[in-house]
User: Fold this.
Amino acid sequence: MKILGIGSNYVTDLKEIEEKRNNKKFIFSKPESSLAVNCDVDYPSDITSNLIYEVELVVKIGKEGKNISKEDANSYISEIAVGIDYTAADLLNDARETKHPWDFAKGFDGAAPISSFKPASEYNLRDINFDLKINGIEKQKSNTAYMIHNFADIIVFISRYMTLQPGDLIFTGTPAVGKGEIFKGDHLQCSVNGELMLDFKMI
Assistant:
């Protein structure tokens, strides 16, 4: 199973989308061991002191595909969840300065908390609301209409380089504003279209 993510994929103003669609896409990966499904997550204090959260919708691939067409791309999505893309910002900064890979900054144990999945057929993929509350306070909120590269765009792009297989997960980007630092003891709640789907604590 592959876990892939796309960076910088949301805007705050719909007018910005066309301008930014030609920007270079960048994709990163997380190992399967980074997943934490519907459970509390240990704060990784042994490796970082600056942990950053980003709420994202996660799509699961339901069938194998390579060089997938834009017209067919959404048919490869079987299920949808909501998750957090955690980044150890201090490790990421070190990696950027030394031009080393991001693996440890993005792929430590617990770096990818996710909810259970629901069938993609339950959603209008172009109109999904999602949000994150921390300790009861809303921190991030957006709708898939504000994606620079929608689900189909992401699938087409990735499948040019690697075969997508059943069970692969794609973190599809975080709202353009609101990401920030998480602390031990924080309580995170993620909702999709108003339904609470992920509810956990940093311990």
